[in-house]
Amino acid sequence: MKIFSAEQLYEADKTTLEKQEITSEALMERAGTKIFNWLQKRMQGAPVKFHIFCGIGNNGGDGLVVGRLLIEHGYNVHVYVVNCSDKRSKNFLINYDKIKNATKKWPSLMKGEDDFPQINPDDIIVDAIFGIGLNRCPSGWVKNLIQYLNRSQAFILAIDIPSGLSANAPLEDMEAVIKANHTLTFQTPKLSFFLPETGVFVSNFDVLDIGLDLEYLQKTEPLAQIISKAEAQRFYRTREKFGHKGTYGHTLIIAGSYGKIGAAVLASTAAFRIGAGMVTAFVPKCGYSILQSTVPEAMVLTDKEEEFLSEITYDFEPSAIGIGMGIGKNEATVSALEKLFKNNKTPFVIDADALNIISENRELLKSLPKNSVLTPHPGELKGLVGKWKNDYDKLEKVKKFSKKHGVVVIIKGAYTITVFNDKLYINSSGNPGMATAGSGDSLSGVVAGLLSQGYDALLAAVFGVYIHGRAGDIAAELMGYEATMASDIIGNLSEAYLDLFSKEEPQSEPMA
Ligand SMILES: NC(=O)C1=CN([C@@H]2O[C@H](COP(=O)(O)OP(=O)(O)OC[C@H]3O[C@@H](n4cnc5c(N)ncnc54)[C@H](OP(=O)(O)O)[C@@H]3O)[C@@H](O)[C@H]2O)[C@@H](O)CC1
Ligand SMILES: Nc1ncnc2c1ncn2[C@@H]1O[C@H](COP(=O)(O)OP(=O)(O)O)[C@@H](O)[C@H]1O
Ligand SMILES: [K+]
Question: Where exactly does CATH 3.40.50.10260 map onto the chain?
Answer without folding.
Answer: 2-222
